[in-house]
Amino acid sequence: MSNGSTSFHGIQNVTFGLTDDTGKLISDTLAGLGDDGVVVIDGDGEGATEANVTGLEEAGTVQYANDKVKRVSHGLPQPQVAITMLDMPYEILQKLKGYDSDGKGGWTLRSGTKPHVAMLIHTTGFDGNDYFEGFANGELIEPGHSHGTDNNAEVDANTTLTYQALTPLDNNIFKDSKGKQQPYKMYANYDGSTFDEAAMLKEVFGGFSGTLNLTNVGGDANTSLSENANPSNAGSNPTGTGSTPATGTGSTTQSK
Question: For residue range 173-187, what is the model confidence (pLDDT) as tens digits?
Fold first, then answer.
């Protein structure tokens, strides 16, 4: 029986969702990432090559008294993820970054607030079991593009992103034993653990109640996004009808 592992190898997949201003998943093809609201980036030629998580803790500040070290104070965690994608669907990335479509092929960065992005990183422990790093709320940026001329070898420029984690909008999740919310949560599925995938997905992705088989995604499903979709309404009322956005109830959408 495995007691779990704290060292990892590889990236099995990275999953994204958009939530509204209350932390509820936006399950809408126009304002969200699809009818189910969640997309696994795992289509043909797509996926993550790097997801470097930093800022989980900072070294404490030592305080002295009576010529002795008496206290170490600790600031708040500031998790950040440097992500490199081999490739991913164009419209999905624009929505995650907060770009608006003009309906004619053009996209511009929306002024004001950024979209609320939920993200789940799935990796493998040295014990062969599944481990996850979850972020229920954060902002995603693409700092720039790098272009180079092809010569006798193709010069590729993969997508580089920065994710900055924020405190979850739902006050009832990601709490420590003292009831204080944190911006980051780990999940482990090893022998003898009490891992519950459905509970994890519901917590990270704003009430998602569909099914994901994250250890066996294949990119067979199509995403249903329209170029005419304008994600500027991806707030508390993404449908523009005055109703509260529905939470996901079906199976996930995989990128292709």
Answer: 999 999 999 999 999
Report d(CA 26, CA 243) in Å as an integer: 12
Q: How many CB atoms lie within 10 A of CB 170?
A: 17
- Residue 182 counted as domain residue: yes
* pLDDT over 80 (residue 243): no
226, part of any domain: yes
Q: How far is CA 140 from CA 55, 97, 114, 115, 183, in A?
A: 16, 5, 8, 8, 15
Residue with structure tokens 């902002």? 139
Q: Is the pTM of this model over 0.70?
A: yes
Q: Establish if 68 belongs to a structural domain.
A: no
> % helix / strand / coil in the chain, to the nearest 5?
5, 35, 60
Query: To which residue do tokens 């599925």 refer?
Result: 189
Query: Helix, strand, or coil here: 86?
Result: strand
Count of domains forming the chain: 1
Residue 177 lies in a domain: yes
* Residue range 111-127, pLDDT digits in tens: 999 999 999 999 999 98
Where residue 219 falls (left for φ over 0; alpha for ψ -120 to 50; beta otherwise) is left
Q: What angle do CA 128, 196, 204 make, to 5 degrees?
A: 100
d(CA 180, CA 193): 24
Q: Residue 212's closest CA among 122, 82, 89, 100?
A: 122
On whether the CB atoms of residues 181 and 171 are closer than 8 A, the answer is: yes
Can you give the residue range of the structural domain that contains 141? 8-56+76-254
pLDDT, mean of residues 18-34: 95
